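Example S7 (structure tokens).
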């Protein structure tokens, strides 16, 4: 009898452990998995073996996942992998959840602030539309957001893969304005200009305010410029001799050009009014 009772107790113990294990992998009433902390910890530490076990992926042919992609932990795992730059973990998760497409702005902004090209390349290969992704809350794009912080790594990658240099932002405050105001290198500014970025007065204001001498010189060379008093005043307020010289020189040159153009117009009018054969003016 004692042996039978001991055996029953052992069976009950094993059954109890199975129940606990099963319960651990089942969602609670809110749909959140009870092993969420373990999943996140594995992603944060880069423990691929443990993560595979938790996801039931020890056997590559087994597809019964512990965490469906439409539940919160799946997104949190990917967010953690991106945040910690665990590219091996991220690659596993993206292949495990091929339909996952929740590119949260917070996650991407963190990546842009502390860029890692391999991480971004994985996200891009998973979803090519990330190149021109829109951030509706700020009316900006991935290219604009990636300029924050002044690191050109991801902005260059986006431009190389077809990012629109004029898309996003409020009037006059597109990607080029973001690059200049965030003090991106002049090489990146030139790359945007070469790709057709529109040089607006707001962009010039940003270059003056940030005292970006080389970027300002480039923008004045390739863009149209209205030498209004406000530009001159702003340049002088910086007390930066190079900025002041660039703006004043451009203003003087344009003033001379405008005077010459006005003289040519006046000469044309005079010649045209004194001759019935006005087309001779062009000969």
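Recovered sequence:
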């Amino acid at each position: 009898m004692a042996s039978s009772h001991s055996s029953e107790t052992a069976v009950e113990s094993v059954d109890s452990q199975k129940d606990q294990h099963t319960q651990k992998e089942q969602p609670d009433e809110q749909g959140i998995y009870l092993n969420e902390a373990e999943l996140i910890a594995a992603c944060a530490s880069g423990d691929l073996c443990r993560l595979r076990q938790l996801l039931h992926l020890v056997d590559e042919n087994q597809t019964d996942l512990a965490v469906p992609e439409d539940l919160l932990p799946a997104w949190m795992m990917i967010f953690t992998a991106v945040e910690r730059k665990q590219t091996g973990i991220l690659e596993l998760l993206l292949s495990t959840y091929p339909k996952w497409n929740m590119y949260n702005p917070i996650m991407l902004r963190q990546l842009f602030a502390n860029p890692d090209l391999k991480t971004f390349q994985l996200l891009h290969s998973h979803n090519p539309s990330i190149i021109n992704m829109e951030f509706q809350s700020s009316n900006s794009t991935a290219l604009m957001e990636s300029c924050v912080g002044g690191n050109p790594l991801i902005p260059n990658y986006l431009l190389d893969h077809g990012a629109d240099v004029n898309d996003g932002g409020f009037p006059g405050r597109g990607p080029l304005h973001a690059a200049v105001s965030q003090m991106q290198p002049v090489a990146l500014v030139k790359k945007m200009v070469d790709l057709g970025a529109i040089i607006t007065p707001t962009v010039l204001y940003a270059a003056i305010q940030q005292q970006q001498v080389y970027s300002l010189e480039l923008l004045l060379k390739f863009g149209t410029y209205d030498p209004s008093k406000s530009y001159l005043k702003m340049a002088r307020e910086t007390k930066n001799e190079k900025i002041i010289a660039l703006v004043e020189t451009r203003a003087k040159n344009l003033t001379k050009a405008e005077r010459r153009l006005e003289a040519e117009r006046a000469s044309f009018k005079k010649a045209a009014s004194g001759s019935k054969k006005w087309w001779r003016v062009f000969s």
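Notes on this example. Residues 1-34, 276-283 have pLDDT under 50 and may be disordered.
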